[in-house]
Amino acid sequence: MTKQTGAAAVASVLAAAGIRRAFGIPGQRILPLFHEMANEHGIPVVLTRHEQGAAFMADMHARLGGIGCALATSGPGAINLLTGLAASYMDSVPVIAITAQAATYEFGRYGIQEGTGIGRTPDIRAMFASTTKGSFQPVSVERLIPDLTEALRLATTGRPGPVHVDIPSDLLLELVPDYGDLPEAGAPAAPAPVRATEEELLALDAALRTAERPLLLIGNGVARSGALDDALALARSRGMAVAGTFLAKSVLDETDPHVLGPVGVFGTRAANEAFHHEADLVVAAGVAFTYLSTSGWPDTLRGDRIVRINNDRRELETHGEFGRGILGDAGDVVRRLAALDPGTVPDGQAWAEAMRRRFPDEVDTGGSDALHPVTVCETINRHLDERTTVVADIGQNAYWGERHLRTRGDNRFIINGGLGTMGHAVAGAPGAWLARADRSSDERVICVCGDGGFMMGALEVSTAVAEQAAVTWVVFNNGTLGTQRAWFEREGHPVVAADLPPSDHVLLARSLGARAQTVRTADELDAALHAARAAGGPTVLDVLIDPRPVPEVYQP
Q1: pTM, rounded to two decimals
Q2: Quick one: which of 73, 221, 335, 412 is 20 to 30 A from 341 by CA?
Q3: How far is Cα 227 from Cα 491, in angstroms, rounded to an integer?
């Protein structure tokens, strides 16, 4: 094989790994890689307006399939990726971040934007080590490709997650050794799943046979195992109602009569009451028992009626007080259970329907001329179909959406639920659309966000304009950081640093090249969403909502 430069070899490995595009901002040290990826290997590089936006877009892209890729130059460019990588880490999203570094002969000599940790320079690798599954810094051309392929393997095996490779700029220009064929990085061998014992499986089967009101609680681990369809089929065959975690709302079709919706602080009443009180057996498959999903780890979740299946021993041990733990791959357990004779089963759909009747999510949306946030959600619901993906930014808008938006599964609802990063969906939405558009040109993304979150990522509207991304930002504009203002009011304190000055989001969006309008009524919102769909490309809808309503926090 003809010898390649380091940059060409890196681009070759990324192409073999199935990287479809990258997101980033060029800097002098990383330009050879930009050239090789875009001009020689057919991997387009999307120019974002800030490196944090690049990381958010790569994260969104990866949530819809494959490995996300973010690029940044040395020093400040690399550091700007950190928040996005941390968000991916907490939500187990496979992203590879590649940053340039000072040349090896400049180490310790204060080269331009050096980040080696020597002297007063920031230690880039140490920063990324705490926010990724692994951070690599090859310091010789012989290590460049082995380190890269190991990073890609690490990102996609076991619990997925982000990785980082920091490449000294001289290695991108040197010739790599003749490896013969480059190491395979595109399809790392999957490790054998952790298997529950036969005794554990039979004990769970026996518990299901005697349960009258069983609930299947689905977490992201089920989707990662490729076992979602098997899990839903198991629920039907065993007469189980179905609920999901804060993050797993993305994979549940909330029009399915078996599905109660998400549990947790801002989940539906029906799902929460089933989880905490009504179900006599809860099978929690691939679930992380986080604060948000459990509503603060209450005593209602103690006892043997909870059975937790997880391939992460640490997760089972950290929350060991909640029910019985089965160490095993959730998908493997689900498939093995499905192979057993279910015997006589209860009517899971009837139970789910009864729970919805007893515990509806009713909200009084009257009493004000201003739009209620729930009315905004209900209007958006009329526009959700099999070609629309909702990405929810963090804030009250997300809490309203978690409970009141009715999505269709198939990763059609995305939220950064672990780190809880404001601006994540606002800036990341173009990445979600690009991933969807690779499969169909008729896709669109609706980003629900608050006015505070919108201002954190609004400049990436310009990126959407450049890519002609069919993204509609629905800005819940209440003139304040609502969650924070609600705390001050609840505690009886004067409000500090929560209220936002008047901002013309429409003028801002238009200055960036997007369509935009102000919305004051449900009819105006309905018409604006139709118009955005017909127009294609990016649209910003500044929706003036009633600032007084606060999402109800579920308390068991």
Answers
A1: 0.94
A2: 221
A3: 45
Q: Token digits for 455? A: 């201002």
Question: What token pair was written down for 115?
Answer: 């980040």
Kindly list the distances between the CA atom of residue 525 and the CA atoms of 160, 269, 292, 522, in Å, as whole numbers in the listed order: 38, 27, 30, 5
Length of the chain, in residues: 556
Kindly report, residue by residue over 470-491, the tens digit of the pLDDT: 999 999 999 999 999 999 999 9
Q: What is the pLDDT of residue 191?
A: 57
Q: What's the rounded Cα separation, in Å, for the pair 280 and 269?
A: 17
Residue 380 is inside which H or E element, if any? helix 373-381
Encoding tokens for residue 224?
A: 């990662």
Q: At what angle do helices 141-156 and 6-16 cross, to 10 degrees?
A: 20
| Interior/surface letters 131-152, b for 16+ CB within 10 angstroms, e for the rest | bbbbbbbbbebeebbebbbbbb
- Residue bearing tokens 């330009």: 31
Q: Who's near 396: CB < 8 A, 6+ residues apart?
A: 373, 450, 476, 478, 482, 483, 486, 550, 551
Residue 187 pLDDT exceeds 50: no
Contact partners, residue 26, CB within 8 Å, separation at least 6: 34, 45, 47, 71, 73
Rounded CA-CA distance 388/432 in Å is 11
If DSSP codes are grouped into helix, strand and coil, which group holds residue 31? Answer: helix
Sign of CA dihedral 196, 197, 200, 206: positive
User: Residue 99: which residues within 8 A CB-CB, separation 6 or more?
Assistant: 30, 71, 72, 73, 74, 77, 78, 81, 124, 164, 165, 166, 167
Predicted confidence (pLDDT) at residue 224 exceeds the cutoff of 90: no
- What single letter denotes the amino acid at residue 274? A
CA separation (Å) from 234 to 161, 199, 252, 344?
Answer: 28, 19, 14, 14
* C-alpha distances in Å from residue 388, one per residue of 109, 384, 442: 52, 6, 9
Q: Tell me the CB-side half-sphere exposure of residue 119, using CA atoms within 13 A.
A: 10
First to last CA, the chain: 64
pLDDT of residue 367: 75
Please report where in the chains the tokens 């599964």 appear, as a residue: 409
Distance of CA 209 to the CA centre of its chain: 35
Mean pLDDT of 428-455: 95
| Confidence class for position 511, pLDDT limits 50, 70, 90 | very high
Instruction: Please report the beta strands in 169-264, taking only residues with DSSP state E, as ranges in sequence order.
Output: 214-218, 241-244, 259-262
Tell me how far apart the alpha carbons of residues 429 and 479 are, in angstroms, rounded to a whole number.
22
- Whether the pLDDT of residue 281 is over 60: the answer is yes
d(CA 170, CA 313): 42
Does residue 183 have a pLDDT over 60? Answer: no
pLDDT bin (cut points 50, 70, 90) of residue 529 is very high
- Inter-CA distances, 438 with 96, 187, 422, 442, 500, Å: 20, 20, 27, 10, 38
SS3 at position 71: strand
* Residue listed under structure tokens 């554990």: 200
Coil, strand or helix at 166: strand
